[in-house]
Amino acid sequence: MKRILLLLLLSYANVHSQQLGIIDSTANISKRGYNYKQLVIPALLIGYGVIGLESDQLKDFNAGIREEVVEDIDRKFTIDDFSQFAPALSVYALNLSGVEGSHSFQDRSVIIATSYLVLSATVLGLKSITKVERPDGSSRNSFPSGHTATAFAGAEFLYQEYKSKSVWYGIAGYAVATGTGIFRLVNNRHWLTDVAAGAGIGILSTKFAYLVNPYLTKKIFGTRNPKTGSVIVPFYDKRQTGILVIWQI
């Protein structure tokens, strides 16, 4: 089991390292146009998950991973219910502590709200369409992993806001997101393909949010850029939906 967990961690770390080497999405409008290469990694993750819906080989691989991961584990962990939000909340915590990110409170709030709205619609839509049974047999809404999508959306958000200061902020965010995905496997709540697709959806949702942010912010706030304010972000987990309210004073 330890070997499997290490393999999963290294796999996601490799994806993250490649992601950091790609031109970021904040430079979305340039003389050469949008850089679509940055979409390759998340697209591959989603593609892997989608193929796994029908591939017998990947289904067998999912089952093998599940058997290795859950062996000798007789308890459930709840840390993933909280860690999914940690990367995104870290952006606000860092700003409050004086470490300013790339965008104002207003802009970054629109960005993360847009990302969460997009990923929520995508994840909930796919869950209702695919109806994949969870590994523990509790329900048929396993694909894709919403917790993982939320975590990776936040990790990409953290990376984009602080990559100009230090790459380690992004690495930390992606490490937490990877851990969230691993705990979804350990808790027997998701298959590996669910987690992979969730990671890709989360990353793409945040990239999309950065792409459309200039337009949305202008439409919502005009040219104003207040130093104080609040943002309401929707969220959901396996049993409930709600809103996350963030204030800056």
Give me a quick take on this structure.
The protein has one domain. Helix content is about 60%, strand content about 5%.
What brief labels describe this structure?
249 residues; globular; 2 strands; mainly alpha; two-stranded antiparallel ribbon
Describe the protein in words.
By secondary structure, this protein is mainly α. The chain contains 9 helices and 2 strands; from the N terminus they run H-H-H-H-H-H-H-H-H-E-E. It has one domain. It has a two-stranded antiparallel ribbon. Helix 5 runs antiparallel to helix 8 and helix 7 crosses helix 9. The protein is globular and about 50 Å long.
**Sheet of most strands:** 2 strands, antiparallel
Q: How many β-strand runs?
A: 2
Question: What structural class results from the helix and strand content?
Answer: mainly alpha
pLDDT under 50 segments (min length 5)? 21-32
Distance between the amino and carboxyl termini: 46 Å
Tally of separate helices: 9
Give the overall average pLDDT.
84
How much of the sequence is in beta strands?
5-15%
Radius of gyration: 18 Å
Strand order of the largest sheet: 1-2
Return the string of H and E elements. Answer: HHHHHHHHHEE
